[in-house]
From TrEMBL:
Protein name per the record: Succinate dehydrogenase, cytochrome b556 subunit
Family statement: Belongs to the cytochrome b560 family.
Pfam families: Sdh_cyt
Superkingdom to which the source organism belongs: Bacteria
Subcellular location: Membrane
Primary gene name: sdhC
Xref: InterPro entries: SdhC_prok, SQR/QFR_C/D, Succ_DH_cytb556, SuccDH_FuR_B_TM-su
Cofactor: heme
Residue stretches in coiled coil: none
Annotated GO biological process: tricarboxylic acid cycle
């Protein structure tokens, strides 16, 4: 089947699917990739801030104590939940990536492994969050 243009000459057949911009369409592999990058960057910035605030102890112990005092607020306790959530997802997803890379059938089970990662993450967070928040808000 060919399509005639305005000038009357035939053109190549048209298809119903058109790729525009990217091949990703929001599937599990893409979301896994995006979440892995976001959690990795968040963990990096946490470590950077942690190194800087720990270095304050050599510069000014009073400033160090003041910074550590601000970390003992309920807002920072909720921030710790976000940090643990990022670390746990990043760790489980990293194991999934290792399996995909080194297991010959890993890419066939990518979708299943993504949902296993999400399940493990949920179970871990359900075990962590209540206990942590009870400690944060009881002091």
């Amino acid at each position: 089947m060919s399509v005639k243009t305005a000038g009357g000459s035939p053109t190549a057949p048209t298809t119903s699917k058109r790729i525009s911009g990217t091949l990703y369409r929001g599937r599990e592999g893409m979301w896994s990739w995006v979440l892995h990058r976001i959690t990795g960057v968040a963990i990096f910035f946490f470590l950077l801030v942690h190194i800087l605030d720990t270095a304050l102890v050599r510069v000014s112990p009073e400033a160090y104590n003041a910074v550590i005092g601000t970390y003992q607020t309920p807002i920072m306790g909720v921030g710790e939940v976000a940090l643990v959530a990022a670390i746990v997802f990043h760790a489980f997803n990293g194991l999934r990536i290792i399996l995909i890379d080194f297991w010959s059938k890993g890419s066939r089970y990518q979708k299943v492994m993504f949902y296993v990662v999400i399940g493990l993450w949920v179970v871990t967070m359900v075990g962590f969050v209540p206990r942590h928040l009870i400690n944060v808000f009881s002091h």
